[in-house]
Prior knowledge:
Elements: H1 5-13, H2 21-33, H3 37-43, H4 47-52, H5 57-67, H6 83-86, H7 101-120, H8 124-141, H9 150-156, H10 159-163, H11 168-173, H12 193-223, H13 227-253
Amino acid sequence: MRLPPWLLALLLVAPCPAWDTLPHQRITRAALETLPKAQLRRLGSEAAPLIEIYCIFPDRYEEMQRYGFVRNSPGPRTAAEIQPYCVRPDGQPIHGATGDRETDAKSLVYLFERIRTNLSANRPGEVARYAGVLAHFIEDSLSPPHAVDADRLAEMTPVPAQMARVNIHAVIERSIPEFTMVERAPRVLAGRQAQVADTVLAQCESGAAQNRRDLSAMVNAAALHDERTLDPYRLRAGRKAAEILADALFTLFQAGSVVR
């Protein structure tokens, strides 16, 4: 989706969003494809909008809440209708990892509780919406430019790219090759909800650390608009996010799971 110039200008001075819409959808689809058919049947017809719409909820919430921008594509028309999924009852937004372990763990536990409660009540639409926000949280946490802060990313940007006003952040995140993980079996994450949240966060941090080690190469490739060099890094980050998401969802869906 191409944003209007006035919104783009606002975004350039605001905290940067992470993966664009298509990468979010591809990562979410790859994760869902690994789940057993019995689990997917519990989502029913809600699996498709989870991939196409719900995994973008945090971005759409921010666009509407902060800028009053409503996309033309199918999905929510007001921030209020998706606020319960994107904002905790205490007012903390849920978007991606904040760097504060306690805050992030509470956000994950909030999503886990809502997913499990709605699974028990056989409300697939609600399950899918909260799962979409969980997907977004994990995916944004593995977005390569988010491995460092905005100032550090600017320092890493080659001078010619700075002079040409190349948005390195956007170039890296705007696409990801389509991929599948159908050969991978999802795994149960052991422990209670808080322990599972800690495991998910640890895996996100590990993936972010790998992104940070390779970010200089990514920045240089983005400065040259070298998509061929960027794609393997994007793919690695996206696959890692899909693996973490698949394991988290598999654990939540498992009958008799140890998560309580």
